Amino acid sequence: MEAVQIDIYISDLLYSYDCVIVPDFGGFVANRASAKIKEVQHQFLPPSKEISFNKNLKNNDGLLTNHISQRREISFQEANQLIRAFVDKSIRGLKNGDRIEIKKVGELYLDPEGNIQFIQSENNDFLLDSFGLQSYRALPIERDTVEERIQEKIRTGEVFKKTGESNVRIVWRAAAVVFFLLSSYLLLDKQMDRSGWGDIQYSIFSPKVEMEKSYRESSSLTEFDLSSTELESSESLKQEELSNYIPSEGEPSGIWVEAESKIDNTEVVEEEVKPTPLRFHVMGGCFSSYSNATGLTESLKSLGYSSRLLGEYKNLHAVSYGSFARREDAVALLKRVKADHNSAAWLLEKSF
Questions:
Q1: Residue pair 118/52 in contact by the 8 Å Cβ criterion
Q2: Quick one: DSSP state of residue 262?
Q3: Which of 16, 20, 103, 347 has its CA 20 to 30 Å from the CA of residue 167?
């Protein structure tokens, strides 16, 4: 059935009024509705007016008749006749199974029980406060999982770039430590020279003086004086070489006696030290595939982490950045991993 001619007047009145009655037919009621979200369609709808149809509102309040009379510049009686023709035509169409369309308002039809049903139009702008606002869709953001991000970094070589950068930092730190130790040694050596403490204090930093003193003490082990000619010896001569020394021809001989060494027969019993269980683990990921788990373990080891393949956790192969016996050590590594490598790392307390 084609659209009737008074639907435009009904929609005009719904902008300014909350109820428009069609005499002897029913009334269209508008109620304010807040903004809505359609989760399935990911759609946001602005505030609007919800339109419903009440078949019990049939008394003529003159609103629609007067509006048609002014818009068409016809008499009040002629406007009533136009409404009467619309009502008769609509009732006949409903009984024949037709749908009565009211533009911008909705559709009317009869259900199997003979009752008038109304479906409002999805898009209407009858609420002047939100006039011009349109619905829009906001599709959800699809983010990669932790496993996918790690695999992507391995595939693109980003992991190895970070490894090179970390090695450079390690070299610079080692160079700084060596420079500090060397500077400290030179400063202390200079202060010792100024203090004039003698060979005892200087021997702490000079191994040459200490070796000479040790040799002089070992020479006191001889039982007989060799001769007036002193035997020249090297600073690095060991006590075993002294005991096996054979004089050359024409050189006075002597007997060297080694000091009696005391042998401690006390038997040392080593106590069996049980390893401390590593219960705190900084987790890097859990994989259903064993090859993926081993691949991540080797990758983290190349970065300098003490990565371990822990075993099965919730039917998955668990990989850690490192495992510790103390919670404090694990928390310290977790902070460093989150800052430098993986913000999704987490702490697991479990004995594997």
A1: yes
A2: P
A3: 347
Nearest by Cα to 309 from 352, 257, 340: 352
Element (H, E) at 153: helix 146-156
Q: What is the pLDDT of residues 71-109, one digit of tens each?
A: 888 998 999 999 999 999 989 999 898 998 888 899 999
Q: Could you read off the pLDDT of 114-160 as tens digits, one per residue?
A: 888 999 887 777 887 776 677 767 777 777 788 888 888 788 876 55
Cα dihedral 156, 157, 158, 164 in deg (nearest 10)? -170
Cα(135)–Cα(152) distance, rounded to whole angstroms? 37
Would the CA dihedral through 225, 229, 233, 235 be positive or negative?
A: positive
Phi-psi region of 109 (alpha: psi -120 to 50; beta: other; left: phi over 0): beta
The token duo for 117 is 């049903």
Q: Domain boundaries in the chain?
A: 7-133, 151-219, 280-349
